[in-house]
Write a structure and sequence with these properties.
368 residues, alpha+beta, Molybdopterin biosynthesis moea protein, domain 2, Hypothetical protein af1432, 3 domains, elongated
């Protein structure tokens, strides 16, 4: 490939990088044959790279492509400027959904039947909006509150389950079923003694035995509904099962656990661990994703986990983050095999740290 060195400031959008670019890293920060984008230029600037090897045949005649890319970049900038408005809109929709679900939950405590159609209509607008405004996935746990926690958790699990189903290329009908099943997985908690459900300390063994019955109660509450497919009813019953047989209620393992249950399981444990609870503090989304992938190996479906990581853990270049060290910075480079541990340029010093190498530090949260 014929090439030439181009000054960074003269680099054209759409040009092709002629060589791997390494900067004190084991793998390239930019790979050979990458197409130049505005984000790629930001990475080069972050690493103080002033000259770039570019394929000679791609230096010229890029005007049409450049115009197209500039238009796309302008749209991205507009979207960023509107981010607060978008998030406010999502939050409003989310709050309304939480309130609506909680009213239903109170009615179930009183013995009323489950209205599956109403629940489906509560969750689907949120799933559809979240798949368009994907930044909400990294902020979802921040919306959760201890007050009405069961409603917050159920809404979040429904959103995440539906989104994972979409990432797995499920049909539109399956996505709707999956989101609705995720939303309904814990409805059986309405039949658990409120004194246990709302206990302000860690549960005793006896308490936990009662809580574990909620999967059975959930199934009993929806088993006669014609609006939910049999495989989704099974997923609700099995969503606390684990592939290694360590779950409940039947200690099923591997192929005996429905793939739909495996999706809800990942969504459920992720949101629970990243949310504030009465008896423990919430954990970083990025730390929890690592724990699910590494410590939960053998318990959870790795393909499902990876789809969740794509939704939550892969941050765009220039995303502002707070680190567990208390420092603030921005994402300048993503590792393909470890997107949750990108390279970060610290705001105060300008120093670049590689979280993949510095394992003692992790991303605490995204700064919106």
């Amino acid at each position: 490939m014929s090439q030439t060195l181009i000054n960074l400031e003269e680099l054209k959008l759409g040009a092709i990088i002629a060589e791997d670019i390494l900067v004190n890293t084991n793998s390239p920060i930019i790979h050979k044959e990458s197409k130049v984008t505005r984000e790629l230029i930001q990475v080069l600037r972050a690493f103080n790279i002033t000259k770039v090897p570019v394929a000679l045949e791609n230096v010229f005649n890029r005007s049409e492509e450049e115009i197209k890319k500039l238009t796309e970049d302008k749209e991205v900038l507009i979207q960023k400027e509107e981010k607060t408005i978008v998030n406010t809109s999502f939050v409003q929709l989310y709050k309304e959904a939480v309130d609506s679900f909680y009213k239903e939950f109170v009615s179930w405590e009183a013995g009323m039947k489950v209205d599956v159609a109403k629940l489906r209509n509560i969750i689907m607008p949120l799933v559809e909006k979240a798949m368009i405004e994907k930044q909400v996935f990294s902020l979802l746990n921040m919306y959760s509150m201890m007050d009405k926690y069961i409603a917050h958790h159920s809404i979040a699990v429904g959103i995440i389950s539906g989104a994972i189903a979409k990432k797995l290329n499920f049909s539109s009908g399956q996505i709707t079923q999956m989101a609705t099943a995720g939303l309904m997985a814990d409805i059986g908690m309405a039949k658990v003694d409120p004194k246990i459900r709302e206990k302000k300390s860690a549960l005793t063994e006896s308490d936990f035995s009662e809580v574990k019955k909620h999967t059975i109660y959930s199934f009993q509450m929806i088993k006669d509904s014609p609006l939910l497919k049999p495989e989704m009813k099974l997923a609700i019953f099995q969503h606390h099962e684990r592939l290694d047989g360590s779950g409940y209620p039947k200690s099923d393992k591997m192929n005996d656990v429905s793939v739909y249950a495996q999706i809800i399981a990942v969504a459920d444990v992720y949101h629970a661990m990243t949310s504030e609870r009465i008896y423990r503090a919430k954990s970083s989304s990025f730390k929890v994703l690592e724990m699910i992938r590494e410590e939960g190996f053998g318990q959870f479906n790795i393909e499902v986990v990876n789809k969740l990581i794509e939704l939550v853990g892969s941050l765009p270049i220039s995303t502002s983050v707070l680190l567990s060290s208390g420092e603030k910075g921005e994402v300048v480079f993503l590792h393909r095999d470890s997107p949750m541990r990108p390279m970060i340029r610290l705001s105060d010093s300008g120093q670049i740290i590689d979280l993949a190498a510095k394992r003692s530090i992790h991303i605490e949260s995204v700064i919106s």
